[in-house]
Amino acid sequence: xxxxxxxxxxxxxxxxxxxxxxxxxxxxxxxxxxxxxxxxxxxxxxxxxxxxxxxxxxxxxxxxxxxxxxxxxxxxxxxxxxxxxxxxxxxxxxxxxxxxxxxxxxxxxxxxxxxxxxxxxxxxxxxxxxxxxxxxxxxxxxxxxxxxxxxxxxxxxxxxxxxxxxxxxxxxxxxxxxxxxxxxxxxxxxxxxxxxxxxxxxxxxxxxxxxxxxxxxxxxxxxxxxxxxxxxxxxxxxxxxxxxxxxxxxxxxxxxxxxxxxxxxxxxxxxxxxxxxxxxxxxxxxxxxxxxxxxxxxxxxxxxxxxxx
Length: 309
Known about the structure:
The protein contains 5 helices and 16 strands. Mean pLDDT is 81; it is low at 295-299. It starts with a helix and ends with a strand. Strands 1, 2, 3, 4, 5, 8, 9, 12, 13, 14, 15 and 16 form a 12-stranded antiparallel sheet that branches. The chain is 15% helix and 42% strand. It is an alpha+beta fold.
């Protein structure tokens, strides 16, 4: 079960940032194109789609400039008297379990620029079996890269951190600012202290490919309950209809409908099966679960794969 303080951190960051996941552990820094299973607040990476030569990412990568960001929840920052003088200090009070301070600056958004093309190629290679795919897998499609970041997360209520600075500042300080030469020391409680990280990736965004009936879903807005079989069921069902062999690339036609939605057409021994694939933003519940469980399909695969002659 996910710890309560991580549950709180991820839900608050998700809401504050509009759908991004916190990388609060220093030993995990996601890259664009990483894929794997979300469990207990972090991504258990299976590999990277580009490094494994599955899908090209470099040609589709884009950058969006950002500035300094300061996210915090249930934290009180108090400056010492004369805080604007050289050598000022601060007291950071964490008022509840899971309260946090999440600061970074000089950041840029690294994202897949042509998502439609990327997901088109990904879907094709999953359906042919070239990419061994588990229905719990998600894909990292956006990453925030920061020159400097500081993350403080309280595991207990009432924790306190003392901060000293060799540069002048005030209570509105960005604790990721390297010019202040900040030093952090926990004076009370239990704090996860990941301060002063250089070239870090403090936030990422992930999507999950989900099978949908044709014309029954829009890619924008909150994720909807799956109403068809999983990728794994589609793959096995198609293989069964082809007498046990894999689908060939020429038997798959993928058309981009929107940046996060494609239409799939499978040619199966003279018949045609059609469905949509939506690449849906993961939810906080999926981030925090032991693993992602697909909802039970509302339609059996035999009924879902409507054949056209």
